[in-house]
Amino acid sequence: MALILNIDTATETAGVCLAADGKPIGLAESQDQRNHSSWLHPAIARLLAESGHRPGDLQAVAVTAGPGSYTGLRVGMAAAKGLCYALGIPMIAENTLDVMAAAAREQLPDADLLCPMIDARRMEVFAAVYAKDGPPLLPATALIIDANSFSEFLSVRPMSFFGSGSDKCKQLISGPHAFFPNPECGVRYLGKLSFLRYLQHGFTGVVYSEPVYTKEFYTHTKK
Question: Distance between CA 5 and CA 91 in Å, rounded?
Fold first, then answer.
């Protein structure tokens, strides 16, 4: 049995999922984005205790590497790296938008094109475009949304927009091919992807792994 701890702090909802062979056996979530860092490690400890497992039982740790919240990505990555280094187990890093697309494929089996979106403030989003199967048609990128966004896809095929960035797009993106469903994209879907990655030995280096910010990181400095 492959026991994998899955960590997702990339978006507004933080989640941890303990999965055995890709099937959740314990899950915890927090909606308080400002406290992801203080919530995460106690949540992991409770999850392991409630499931009757110890950290030493883990075969791997998986984490959403980005895109997403800059602070959230660093919180999740640091936790995953620390656990993997201390326990001597491999780390798995998944693209946040890939996880969202996997969730939508399961819940929206009749959808043609899928466009997961993460709010990146103002009218900017992190987004990618996926068909039912195969690699992304548009890789993860940061976009400023306007009325012509995704017109090359929407002119010929139905497209489903979802995720935290899709709400503000409803005002600008319209037409008979634009749909805005609301699939659940929680950390349990990271557990399914990470198990497949584990079977393929698709591990990432613990020491040199970094968050996938997708756009340049910046901070505001007080004068």
Answer: 10
Break the chain into its structural domains and give their ranges.
3-96+185-199, 109-179
Model pLDDT for residues 67-113, shown as the tens digit of each residue: 999 999 999 999 999 999 999 999 999 999 999 999 999 999 999 99
Contacts 24+ apart (CB under 8 A), 216-221: 217/70
What architecture is the 109-179 domain classified under in CATH? 2-Layer Sandwich (3.30)
Mean confidence (pLDDT) of the chain: 93
* CA 115 – CA 80 distance, rounded (Å): 27
Asked whether residue 221 carries a pLDDT value surpassing 60, the answer given is: no
For 118-152, how does the pLDDT look when each residue is reduced to its tens digit (9 = 90+)?
999 888 999 999 998 878 999 999 999 999 999 99
Shared fold status for 3-96+185-199 and 109-179: yes
CATH superfamily name and code, 3-96+185-199: ATPase, nucleotide binding domain (3.30.420.40)
Q: Residue 218 above 80 pLDDT?
A: no
Q: What Rg do the C-alpha atoms of the chain give, in angstroms?
A: 18
Adjacent-strand bridge partners of 16: 7, 28
Rounded Cα–Cα distance for residues 19 and 185 (Å): 16
Query: What is the distance between the alpha carbons of residues 63 and 77, in angstroms, rounded to a whole number?
Result: 7
Give the number of C-alpha atoms closer than 13 A to the C-alpha of residue 14, restricted to the C-beta side: 25
